[in-house]
Each structure stands twice: as structure tokens, then as C-alpha cells.
Input
Amino acid sequence: MPTTPTPTATHTTARPGSPGPLMTVTGATLVLAAAAATPATRARPARSPGPYRRLFALPGTRGFTTGNLIARLPTGMFGISAVMMIAGQRGSYALAGAVVAAGLAATAVVAPWTARLVDRHGQARIAVPATLIAVLGSLCLVVCVRTQAPAWTLFASYAATATTPNIGGMSRARWTHLLGDDRAAHHTAMSFEQAADELAYMLGPVAAAFLCTAVFPEAGTLTGAALLLTGMLVFTAHRGTEPPPSPPSRSGARLRSLFPLLPLFLALGAMFGSLEITSVAHLGAHGLGALSGPVLGLQAAGSCAAGLLYGTLRPRGLATCLAALAGAMALPWAAAATGSVLPLALALLLAGMATAPVMVTAMSRIHRVTPPGRLNEGMTLAVTALFAGIAAGSAAAGSAIDHLGTTTPYALPATAALLALLVGARPGRRGDSR
Output
């Protein structure tokens, strides 16, 4: 006799908030049903890595960057180390300053030629022997100072350090080679390089002063030479990221297209040089000379932090960055008039933060107008113009301080920033980085 089908009853149970499967009763059968999608069980989208993480995920980038940072630190050490060593042993700051100034003049002549050889024959092939010559010059300087050799030997020894390769330019050239036409990644890389520059100029003088005073007068120069050689060997050992050598070409006409940009770097250098000398003199006149290092370090720290932050943002136009810099450079002048160190320190911090976007964007402009095969040479010319401006700004500030006191000369960096704005924002120079 046929049986009547039992009516089917369905009941679903699940623990409230439980992400597990549901129990479903169908007739007399207990089955498991697929769990319903809940906010807790939905797959969360993976977080995309940040721009710096993507940058250093490229093969070989962490290796050459390590060498780059080690070799970069001595750039902020050699000058002050030489001054403290020579003045301490010979008792003459005039001689020490003259030796360092002569070395900078030699660098202005030799550095572009060294950069051209690097572009033409390869980084490892030229940078390593050039670094060895510079290190030997530093060691010779130490020996001449210790043995009371004639003064001309100090000039000759320090001039030999002019062969030091532009490690910042070579690192930027590697990023350009690796990143190709990825403009966003290139902007991040240039921002990182600017932050590395600021880090070297922030930590280098502090390390040099400590070594020369707490250890022995020659310790700063010897440590700087060891770091330079070690870092350059690590940097050049990563051959996979090295740009290929560029054969000689008739690209002089195109290289001349960056010459109109050099006055911009001269003005920026004058701003840096006058601001530093004026700040040291102003703090010293108020009995705060011991705070010169920390206060100037705060300015460099602001630039370093702003450079890293700028690398995560959309790049701005050069005129916009220069306008912000011109406004920020008026702050130290106003703060110095208060006679208090705290407003001046905050003003220098803000001024430092405004410099990083300008330098990143200006260096990207140099990259855009320079032939790929002469990129290191083009960047070295820009750095040479920057150093020339620093020397001129320092000299102008020193003269102004002697005649006008220590507050009015803060008008010099403000004026230099305004001049940079006028030069950089001229018609025909608009456009963004890269």
C-alpha cells in the first residue's frame, strides 16, 4: 500500500554572528547549507602597497640604495672635518677656510668632467678609481696636517678630493634607467633622493663635529673617507641596475638646453648659503651658539620629511613650489626680529619643508631637458651651480652681518627665494616635473 509522502519542513539554524555553515532540516534529514555571505566572511580587498614599497620591490634597488646612503653621508662631513682638523692643528681658521674654498672651486671644474666620463664609460669603471683618488687625497691631507707640511700641500691634497663622483646623480640615473616612462614612480624616486640629500647634510656635520672633538681631530676626515670608499664599492657592485654606457654623441645642443635652468640653482644655492650663515651668526649673537647645530638640523629634518611626503603626492608645478618657498623664506626674517629662538626654530622648520618640493621638481626639470646618455653630467652641472650659489650666498651674508647685524641679513635668503621664483616662473618654463 503506497505511503503518503511526509510533508517536508525546512528549518535553518545558525548561531547569531557565527561565520560557520548553517544547519538545515529537510524532512528527517539534517544537512549542511552553504554559509551566507556576511560582512565578516566577505574577502577583504588586499591593500595596495605604498609608492615607496613598490619602488624598492624592484630587484637590486635596496642594494644600490644602501651603498648610496653610505657614500652620501661623507658629503656633509668633509668640509667641516677639514676646517676643524686644519684649524685645530695649525691654529688658523683663515687657512682652513681657504683650503676648503679651493677644494670647492676645484670640484666645480672637475666634477662635470668626472660625470661625463661616468656617462660615457659606465659608473663602476669610472666611479671606483675616481673615489680612490679622492680617498688618497683625504689621507694625504691628514698626513700633511699632522707632519706640519707646507701650506700648499694642504691645498693640493684637498683639491684631489674634487674627483669624488656625484653619488646622488648616479643614483638618480639608475632610477631613471629602471623606471623608464613611469612618471609617478620617477617622482617618488626623485623625492626619496632629495630626502637622502637632506639626511646626509643633517647627519654629516653632526657626525663630523663629534668625531673631531670627542675622538681626535683627524677622525672626521678618516671616517668620511672610509664611508665614501665602502659605500661606493657597495653601490657599484650592483651592476644589474647600472645604466649602460653611452657612446660619444653630438648632443651638445640639447645639453645646452639646461643652461637656462642653472640660474635657478644659483639662486637656490644663494638662499641656502645665506640662510645658514645668518642663522649661525644670529644664534651666536644671542648667546645660543651651541644651538646652531640642532636648529639647522631641524631645518634639514623638515626638508627630509617633506621630501618623503612629497613622493607620495601628485607633483606640483615648479612655479607653485617656488611661490610657496618664497613665502616660507620670509618667515625666518620675521621670527628673528622677535629675538626668541623658538619662533626662529619653527620658521626654519617650515622653510626647510618648503625647499624639498622645489628641489625635487627642479631636478626633474633637469632630467627632462637632458639627453639620457648625459644625465649624470646634467645633474652634476646643476649641483655645481647650486654649490656656486651657496658660496656666493655665504660670502654675501658674512659681509651683511658685519655691517648690518644679524637680523637684517635674513632678507638675503628671502630675496634669493623671490629671485628663484622670478627665474623659474618665466614664460616658457611652465610645466610639471619629469
Q: What stands out?
A: Residues 96 and 384 are 21 Å apart (CA to CA). The first helix runs from residue 51 to 55.
